[in-house]
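Okay, can you check this protein?
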Amino acid sequence: MGSGDGFLHAINADGSLRWKVSAGAAVNSAPVLTNPRVIVSTDSGDLVSITAAGKLEWRFHAGAPMLQCSPAAARAMVYVGDNEGWLHAVRAASGKSVWTVKLGPGIFSSPVVDTAGTVYVNSADGHVHAVSAAGAILWSRDASVAPESTLVIARDGLIYARTIDGGATAIGQPRVQSAAECVAAGAPACACQCEPCFGMTSSCLDDPGCRLILECAKRTSCRGSDCLTACQAAVRQAGGAHSVSVRSAQETGACLARRCHACGGGEP
């Protein structure tokens, strides 16, 4: 467990102290166990990994405070928010950053991860966000969730949280209408095929870097990794080949190519 004096304590089953390690700053969040290490966030914005033997393994600096931001671990990754609204994904074994995405004015809770690897977290403006394992924003919804309320995912897929007024809310996952239902409702078949990509495409178009890459892919007719060469200038402007904008463009393009081929969808 952590403490305000900046130390992380490991306690034996009989209550005796096993080890005590300095995290470098006050710890006001819960640690997460991911064998063979324990990872904790600090108020100063560090994510710190300690081995089972009590040795400092690695330190990741987020660049913003992490007050009340407990990390979550899944699939060899660690996810943590910071008080400026960024969600970070780092490798559990090394602390190396994989992606960072801006979600809102601040995060003061712990992310949760479902069995598909989707990460959910709420921000200080009451919104709930779903982010793919690759760092693409899948959807965001204003649910008036209390900033410090950690989400709970039930077996039926509903997301439960405490609201700003002290009540509780259940948030359903956005339902994707099938192409058959869409056509039956009178929409063009082409638009119906593409509907599952609408949310992802909308998020991409809101990201200037992602938009640049999609526009370049359409202009050059490049596909997949070929776009990294064909759209070098756009990739650089978007932050480089490993940036969130580029990954979002790749995921969006793949969805468009897979589902919207009849509409001329391209894959960056």
Notes: The longest helix spans residues 244-259. The domain at 7-171 is CATH 2.130.10.10 (Methylamine Dehydrogenase; Chain H).
